[in-house]
Amino acid sequence: MNGIWVQSYGVETAQQANAQLDRFRSVGIDTLFYNVHERGARYNSAFYPLSTSMKKGFDALGYLIERGHARDMKVFAWLSFGADLFPLNSAWSVPEGDFTDFSKADARKRMGDVVADIVANYAAIDGFALDYMRHRGLVDEVPQRYAAEDVTDAVARIHAAAQGRTIGASVKAYKNDWVRWAQNWPNWLRDGLIDWVMPMAYKPLDNVWGDFATHVNAWLGAAAHEKIIPLLSVVDTAQQGEPLKPASQLVAEIAFFRKHKFAEFAWFDQRASDEQLAAIKAALPEGTSGMAATLLTMAEALESLAGQQEALAAELRKKAVGLRTIAESCS
After folding, report:
1. I need a surface site. Which of 22, 50, 83, 219 has the fewest CB within 10 A?
2. Mean pLDDT per 10-residue segment, the chain (331 residues)
3. DSSP three-state, residue 196
């Protein structure tokens, strides 16, 4: 995978959609995660009010699925229930009024309902990318309004409603964040509720929280390598105005993760400049991520086969020695 997360305002007309798809596909991006509920639904929803900023009659999600598939791209609905479900019903909000309260069973049910609605009306959708599936803040710094089990139950409902489609989740990136944010993604993966996670490694080289390799090793201790896709940011989210990072910084970040044997990546977000996209393409040529994963799988299979053959050869040599011994005793 070489994917990109696209904010709703990045696709509000058919012309914008085609331009974005062409731009991203030309640099080897093969997967698009589209924010479908930002400032209103960007598709025909039974639960969210339609966005007023899109061109009237334009179904952004449906258009992206159709035109993305024509370009051999996968299209996922980016869902941010923690951040955008509570405005639908004030009873679903935490007391602070700024996040969905996952302790509310009817709120969790509605998350599954929304996914089922999308599946029913957009059967060709490739899957769902979950965001904000966590506590509203670090559990040791803000009042705990709900438990990790509540969030996991919501993920399970989404999994059931997705009817076999791929589900991934963007998650906090530091060691033990799955505990500190009530975001138990290792168990989600273990139990088959999701297919992959994307740790939001937006500043992997700044060493503010120590050598980032420590955090990567924590990921790898919690889940299989192939289930983890680093999510890198083209903007500096810590700076006012979120300026674009230098292209050279993105190349360095790619190099860091490739050193740790990661072959697939995703990018936040569509604000990437042409210079940045060109640098990404140079560091990860089109098809490299998929080819690397395939080659690694083939190499492992050949190594396993070689081991089996060596064991078989040793056993055959042993039998041959036994037959020679018998033959010599008979002569």
Report:
1. 22
2. 95 96 96 96 97 90 98 98 97 97 98 98 98 95 94 98 98 96 98 98 86 96 96 95 96 96 96 96 66 51 64 76 73 60
3. strand
